[in-house]
Amino acid sequence: MVEKAKKIWIDGKFVDWDDANVHILTHTLHYGLGIFEGIRCYECEDGRSAVFRLPEHVERFFNSAHSMFMKMPFSQEEITQAILDTLLTNEQKAAYIRPLAFIGEGAMGLHPQDNPVRVSIVTWPWGAYLGEEGLTKGIRAKVSSFTRHHPNILMTKTKTCGNYVNSILAKLEVTTDGYDEAIMLDPDGYIGEGTGENIFIVRKGVLRTPPLTSILPGITRDCVITIARDLGFAVQEERFSRDDLYAANEAFFTGTAAEITPIREVDNRTIGEGLPGPLTRTLQDTFFQVVKGTKQDYSHWLTYL
Length: 305
Fold this sequence. Notes:
The structure is a single chain. β11 (about 200-205) and β12 (about 205-210) form a beta hairpin. Helix content is about 25%, strand content about 30%. By secondary structure, the protein is α+β, with helices and mostly antiparallel strands.
């Protein structure tokens, strides 16, 4: 269960957690047109708190809104400040941050007409998305029978609420069979992404990840590519097949929620030695040093409270 915070920011005001409600005729509730972001605030080694890559997340939030014909009632600067104010108001040293823009009540039917675009920001403590054991030992994944979105069916570069029904179906399918997470193929049958994560493999010392053709441009994905290249590793953004994944020496998911989570098994096939590999470990260790503020070369990724 989500741990309650003191306040939720909604439409420019703070309200008590239990009072942050919407009408049953809220348009997004019926038709799914809304956008959101997932952001993390970390408690750093020096005791301060910092939001990780806040400008990039806010920019993507607004890009999603623009793509989905949603006119935001606040500026990027106002949302940025509201995120920081919410963390401070809730006295949270570390938290997951969920900005959400949704279409409110008014007209019904598919066309939202002039229904208001409403914005909320919720923050709560959230540990390892796929479990602490998953971070240290790796998880079991299964390729889902559900295909990831085609770029001409839905906006694949946006975090649109309705898009994630596809992810929910894949997640339920594989967890029912005892797996931790689903891997989804793109419309052409190549490895796409997880239900809420990007995916990387390591083969013969080369780090590979699918290109940004029909997948979400993950901010953690971008961090991993940058860090890996800075450490001198070869990185290729290219398509790869399911059997490339099976034959990989290492594999891992990336995402704001998942952070860097190793994959030890896919479709009952052991990946590498069935343990997080050396490159995965190096990237994971470096990433957590970065978000904790101990790598000065990446301090520009941190917005301190």
